[in-house]
Design goal:
This protein is mainly alpha-helical. The chain is about 70% helix and about 5% strand. It has a two-stranded antiparallel sheet. Helix 1 runs antiparallel to helix 3. It is elongated and about 55 Å long. The two termini are about 25 Å apart. The relative contact order is 0.13.
Length: about 80
């Protein structure tokens, strides 16, 4: 997999992340009901984005490490 493609996909994800947690979108999931795992949907929505962001950063780190390991310039 091309590292530039991975970087673009992660950047696209974080743009979507930004849109998912700012005012107009997060107000759609606001309110005390329904409950998700015992939390109001707005809290679960925020926690979900945080977890997905961590996974995205872990995937980026894995791709970068793999790219550097296969690159002859990484031996500098």
């Amino acid at each position: 997999m091309d590292i530039k493609f991975v970087r673009r996909m992660i950047l696209s994800f974080f743009v979507l992340y930004l849109l998912g947690v700012i005012w107009p979108v997060v107000s759609l999931v606001g309110g005390p009901q329904p409950l998700v795992f015992g939390l109001p949907l707005a809290f679960a929505w925020s926690i979900g984005w945080i977890v997905l962001g961590g996974i995205a950063l872990a995937l980026l780190e894995w791709a970068e490490t793999r790219h550097e390991a296969g690159s002859p310039a990484a031996e500098d």
